[in-house]
Amino acid sequence: MSGEDDCEIGAMCWDADPETLEGTCVSFCQGSPQAPTCAAGSHCAVLNDGGLNVCLPDCDPLAQDCPAGDECIPLPDTETFVCVLDASGAEGQAFDPCEFANACDPGLLCLPSEMASECDPMVAGCCLPFCDVSAANSCPGVGQDCLAYFDPMQAPAGFEDVGVCGLP
Known about the structure:
The protein is built from no helices and 13 strands. By secondary structure, it is mostly beta strands. The strands form 5 sheets. Strands 9, 10, 11, 12 and 13 form a 5-stranded antiparallel beta sheet that branches. A hairpin with a 4-residue loop joins β3 (30-31) and β4.
């Protein structure tokens, strides 16, 4: 954010703290735009209409195992989850309105507001928790169930138990 970037060639400073101006060096994606590649343990996030393609670390949405200040959310158009900056600020608690995937607190995801009766029906998105479909229902909303995130038999290995709280 300061305009200074001391990362090695082929990488850029990511998730810079606005106060300390310190961030983490992340690699640019390699390969072609149609088939981008990253080192093991990360996936390519195609950002700004393809103008910025960076490798972000993989994560587990149920464990929320990202570094402090980051959260684990789905990488669009893939079957994986990556660590991104938690942009929720003072907002982003369960049932708060949201516009972006990373506008909710860690452990929550911005989903359609009709998935919970506590969400404002006049807003497009609402922060709702991830949940474990193999565990007892822990969803906070009235009438909510833990709904599988992936279609039946479509979950990638390791993500079979990933769910989100929502109205059935």
